[in-house]
Amino acid sequence: MKLVYSDGFLKQYRRFSPNFRRIVERKLSLFLQNKFHPSLRYKTIQAFKTVIPPVKEISISMGVRITLQEFPDHIYLRNIGTHSILP
User: Fold this and answer.
1) Would 87 be classed as within a structural domain?
2) pLDDT (0 to 100) of residue 86
3) Is residue 19 part of a domain?
4) pLDDT tens per residue across span 27-78
5) Which neighbouring-strand residues pair with 5?
């Protein structure tokens, strides 16, 4: 599956340290292999469950998450940041 990055995602991603970016890349690789892996804590964001397709989130660490939408041909990465980010 192809990953498509929003401009906001890329802007926030660049603010992380190179070490943390490697962690993000490993988590995204894991997501592509098995989105239901327990460490990802994959779930639908309830406030956006009626959006088509629904906005979901995965956890990178205890304080950082990625919001995304899954389309038939790609996964759109919306945001990355603390749990206070908006989808």
Assistant:
1) no
2) 60
3) yes
4) 999 999 999 999 999 999 988 888 899 999 999 999 999 999 999 999 999 9
5) 77
Which band of pLDDT confidence, cut at 50, 70 and 90, is reported for residue 87? low
Task: Extract the runs of DSSP E, i.e. beta strands, from 6-87.
Answer: 43-44, 55-59, 64-70, 74-82
Number of domains within the chain: 1
Tokens read off for 36: 């239901």
CB within 8 A of 76, min separation 6: which ones?
A: 4, 6, 68, 69, 70
Residue 21 counted as domain residue = yes
Q: CATH number, domain at 44?
A: 3.30.2310.20
The answer to whether position 69 is within a domain reads: yes
